[in-house]
Amino acid sequence: MAETTDPQAAPTPDNTHWGVAYLREDLQDLRLQLREDVKDLRQLNAETNKRIDETNRRIDRTNELIGSRFAWLITTMVALAGILAALIKL
């Protein structure tokens, strides 16, 4: 009995070439998409950093305001305590 070769067992070079071409195109598409995603992430990171910087500036201004009000409060309390002590001694 003669051996028969199965035509589907071994792919022809033409099919392999097309498969490699499609894989190459897919890899290029993935690389482009990855570059776009990285660009978007960098832009988002820059925007987030701007918002964080603005929040830090607001916190600093609030701390300065609280500090100045605290100083006024302590000064007023000391002055009132002095006045009260002077009134008690009279």
What labels describe this entry?
1 helix, 90 residues, mainly alpha, 0% strand, rod-shaped
Could you characterize the architecture of this molecule?
The structure is a single chain. The protein has one helix at 13-89. It contains 1 helix and no strands. The chain is mainly α and 90 residues long. The termini are far apart. It has one domain (22-90).
Question: Would you spell out the secondary-structure blueprint of this structure?
Answer:
Elements: H1 13-89
Count of discrete domains: 1
User: What is the string of helix and strand elements?
Assistant: H
User: Tally the helices: what do you get?
Assistant: 1
Into which percent range does the helicity of residues fall? Answer: over 70%
Strand share of the residues? under 5%
Mean pLDDT: 87
| Total count of strands | 0
Describe the largest sheet.
Answer: none
What is the C-alpha radius of gyration, as a whole number of Å?
Answer: 39 Å
Gross morphology is rod-shaped
Estimated structural class: mainly alpha
